[in-house]
Amino acid sequence: MKCLLLANESAEVLFYWTDTEFEQRVQEQYGVSQEEGERLPAFEDSINTLFAPIIISCSTMVDRLGDNYTSFSTENNHIYVLHQFEECLYIAVNGDGDETEEDLKRKIFVMKKLTEIMFGMVTFSGALLRKELRPQDTEQRNRLWKKLRSLLETYSRLRENDQSFLVEAVERLIHPTLCEQCIEFLERRLVQQINSNMDRMGEEVLHAFILVHTKLLAFYSSRNASNLYSSDLLALIILVQDLYPSKINLDETSELESSSVPEVFYTPEPSPPERESVRQRGDSPPVFQFVDPDVQMAEDSLQTLEAPTPDPSAPSRVFLESKECPMPHSMYCLPLWPGITLVLLTKVFFYYKTSKAKTICTVSMSYLFIYLFIYLKSTFTSQLQNAWTDFKNKAFSRSGSGFTRDLLPSCRNMKTQLCGVYRQFFAAECMGSSQRLAPHLQERALSMVQEKLMDWKDFLLVKSKRNITMEFPGLIHFIYVDRSNGQMIAPSLNVTDRTVSELGKGPLADFIKKKVWSLVATAQRYLQKGYATVTLRDGDYFYCYFLWFENETGYKLEVIDIPSSPDDGAPVGMLTCDYYRKLLRYYSKKHQNEVVKCYELFTVHLGVIPNEYILQHCSQLARKLWEPTRIPLL
Amino acid sequence: MAETATLTDSRRFFFLYDSSKVQEEVDLTRDGIYYFSPEDTPIDQQELLCGQLAGVCRCVSELSSSPVRLLHLRKSKYAVRMKDKFLWALSCVVDIPDVSVCDLLDQLIALFCFYNGPVRQSYQLYSKQELALRWARYLCHLQGGSTELHHIFSCLRTIDSTHIDPLLLLKAALILQACQRCPLVLAGCILYRGRVVSTQMPPALTVKVMVYETQTYSQDFQVTANGLSSLVGSPFSSTATTQVFLMPTELHMLRCPPVDRACRSHCNQPPCQPSRSRLLSRTLSDTPTTDTDSSSLDPTHCPPPSYKTVPSSPRSSLSDELCFSPSPSRVNTPIHSNLMNQSEYFTPDSHVHSTSNGTNLCAVEEHLAGLNIKQDIDANSGSETKSNGLNSDQDIQSEEIKAPANGYEQSNCLDNHSDLDSQIKSEENKLDANNHVTNKNGNGETEEEAKTKSKQINRKLKEKNEPTNTPSPHETLEDTSLVPLVLYQHRVKGLVLALLVEPEFITDHSAREEVHHSSLASLNGLEAHLRNTSPGTPGPPGPYTFAHYDCIQNTLTTNVCGRSVGPQDQAFVKATKLVHSHFSRLDTLQEAIVRNASSAVYGTRTTAQETYFLQQGTPVRNSGSPDPQDSAFSLPRKARLRLLKHGVNLL
């Protein structure tokens, strides 16, 4: 029984997702209370009514007590987790015991991350996000919500089954030679060819990578590309998995059989009719009415951002983190064979507006840095100009209130205006354009990589299931994570697969899987409270967790006191607010002259092994695993 | 905006809210607030908090078809109980484990029901103000634990047995056993200055019994601290009885203890106890009065005779009690207990009128007049605790106004005495009028019958109040399943003997006399010994910190002392909280070592105990990477060695 919903301050549901059990429960409740013969209210209305008291109470608590609910639990172990981002309230519910409070919190943060990937900084403004998430056009809304729900379900499936989404780090296929060859191929052949082609239509490939299921085979970034953060890469893997899900329950043979006819998967449609119609609608006069008159924008920005359509040659618009602010990119997902995908990320080209827009974003990220603001103000819309004047008067004039809480409404207003400008420059512009790599170019890229990997594909598919094996008597499982580059190594735990994993299959493997999942959750909870080493004896097993820092040469650096974070803070991980990036930044302050690396090791041993041997294992394991992570990515 | 920004984070709240009082639009939230602590919280803030939390809890519980148990905010958390339209909420800071704050709230509610019976009924019989005093007392009792560790484990405060001659503990145990030779005595405990010396009750019951004692001890302490003539030194001994309410499970445990007293388990009433069982306990006893008291007790063993032997004239009973009283200062208490006993079987109308929130009860009385079985409802409703309750309320009040504590008990008693004269007189009138009821009752209504009747009465009572309170019938029945019993307390200066006894104990003179006399000398002796045992300056703290929690006895042994907590101790307490809450979530977890840069804590548990250990001293610098030489991993070995001398066996 699960549910996740987003609501704004006026208790309007902006998006919801429920499983069938939850839906049934709600309908039963309404079925009982309904008068005979009366029609059941629409499910969305029921959801709205049911949660409204909670949502309203939340804003009352914030306004009058300066505090807010973070969770409820009931005697039958239903859990409700609440989190407020800006003006949006997220509520996640679980009533079947599958998820813990921490899981629900993580789900909320992931949902937030997914909206950021889709809408960029527009998510910073409640009013604008409402417009994106609740388009007036029902069909459009249904399509968008369907997409978001499907993404959420894909994430949940990965989180439940995939170790790289358990620890939130990308898993790489351990095959140094092939990896190096592929990187070279992506660089010299693929990216170079596309970027020098006339038909790229103003697109420039910045990053290219090959995924085998969720594992990374090769990754290439062009010289002038900015860094692709692990959190974004993980989010992109969710998008890819959503488009081309790995069929976990499908057995190997059928997968291989179907892979013998690769070409059929790609049939580009030059001009999807659906897409055109949306554009036309965008040209017509706006039908929206803003809730808040202060949020009035230039009319050309009122066109709603469009949800990705099922057109295969159309890229997905993704907003990726950069130094300044989330920047729009086009993502092309080209399925090589089932389970193997080539992904290209291109920069969206903005003609003359780019530099200005970029500056504005820098400002909007830190809108209190007023100097830049003054410098730029000539480029702003008049609403923004007014908002700025208002803010300036309040903050800096003698008669004004100065930097107090009273300034908040002005700040909020300004933020909304800036988000509007951002949207106008990036989001609306990009979404409206049909700009993309020419289909034949995409096709060409696909067949090039297929040709290159044809002999390897079966190997890769098997390799992705048995990535690494380690022989230590008594060692049952381990996960090794390099947090500095966001990568992990672990033996497979495919308990649902018909192929036998390291642990065999059946109830024992399932039991171990549950234990591994709970070990990671436990370790993260202790880490959040500042404990970097944890050992546990639980039933017949012994669990260890270590987090430590090294410099680039592998010299182990002294342990530090890790600050403990509040219970309502972001979950420990990389997919959402990157905890480890902050941790590394914190540690680097004390080691400014060297590059600091951060590692984690989780192990499960049989409990009968004496502790000394277990610790010896762990230390040997860490040494051995250090090597494979040295494989260069670039 | 944020007018009360500091409200939720720094203060601990507790409130009881009745949502049945706030159903219409016009109803004020404040009408639903039965009790709110701290009481000086402005009413609009009380309304805000109660209104919001009650509303949101109701919404969530409807969505999930289950009551809310725990509610987290960013800066605080609330344990919640929802029952019969009532909502209790107790807040604490966020780093207290969930399990601890939930336990605390449950204890608090259980404590209230123990002394006052079912909540709804209590609020029909007594005023909010009166019950507020009691809530405050229970809250103070439970939150007044000496260290943070005590809060985490919500354990009993015991005397430091390491500084006490073990023979004294044995002596205390023997006193309790000797008392149990009276078949009406179910179980007992001995407390010294608010701490447990020896107990025969399960921990949950011991905590409840300790309430008044802790209160008194803190008064004693104040007195000595002020340098005024202390009560501790003056001859001071008294007995008191209070009606209490036990849950059927608790009662079953007392009546059917697992060992030794199996004979009692065969009958709920203790009438036909073979003397053999008493011989059993005699082997452990050094009191040479066994033979005489066995003969004197025998007639009283079966309730019907005991009912018959009870003097039906209150006057004679009163004089008897006065004769027994060892000192004038105690005069009030036997009278009170006597009144109480009468009020249990007769209706002390005057009494009720003088103290309860009148109208409600008047209505009840009128209603009951026709039914002619008043005694039952009184027996169940706990109105007789009035006599004691009144007294204790005064205790609190005088404590609050910081009246000079010099001779405080004494003067209090005198005041009561004059009050009592009039009370007694009215009682007598009342009793004469009700004599026929007594006789009828005396002819042996079984407990079962009494119970069913009281249920009927309660149902009537609910019906009567239907327009205002509408708890569903089955909920009411659930409430009335509490069984009335009597708590007998015998105080000798700082020492208190507390016994849970069958209600007949009050009317059974010989039993009371026997218990009183057989224990008096031993108690005096024990008190003198305990008083002369120096509290023991805690020895030089070892190079380690530990806490050992006994889950069965609910006790804690630790060398973390009091409130002066150093950084190492803080680190220890922080880790203990986390690991304890981990243990409580995961049954299969046996052992944990958690380490940060400055400290490493080892926790281990079995079904019977939890132990936490921290080795002090600056840790050897390390990287935190897996290393067999790491000192953190030698903690289990060190803990086994070090803790042996504290009587903790981890082998």
Question: Can you put this structure into words, describing what you see?
Answer:
The complex is a heterodimer of chains A (634) and B (651). Chain A is 43% helix and 18% strand. Chain A has 634 residues and is of the alpha+beta class. A six-stranded mixed beta sheet of chain A has the order 6-13-12-16-15-14, sandwiched between helices. A five-stranded antiparallel beta sheet of chain A has the order 2-1-5-4-3, sandwiched between helices. Chain A has a five-stranded antiparallel beta sheet with strand order 8-7-11-10-9, sandwiched between helices. In chain A, a hairpin with a 4-residue loop joins strand 1 and strand 2. The radius of gyration of chain A is 26 Å and the shape is globular. Chain A starts with a strand and ends in an 8-residue tail after the last helix. Chain B has 28 helices and 15 strands. In chain B, the strands form three sheets. A five-stranded antiparallel beta sheet of chain B has the order 2-1-5-4-3, with helices on both faces. A five-stranded antiparallel beta sheet of chain B has the order 7-6-10-9-8. A five-stranded antiparallel beta sheet of chain B has the order 12-11-15-14-13, with helices on both faces. In chain B, helix 20 crosses helix 23 and helix 23 packs antiparallel against helix 24. In chain B, a hairpin with a 3-residue loop joins strand 14 and strand 15. By secondary structure, chain B is of the alpha+beta class. The termini of chain B are far apart. In chain B, 47% of the residues are buried. The radius of gyration of chain B is 26 Å and the shape is flat. The N terminus of chain B is likely disordered. Strand 3 of chain A pairs antiparallel with strand 3 of chain B.
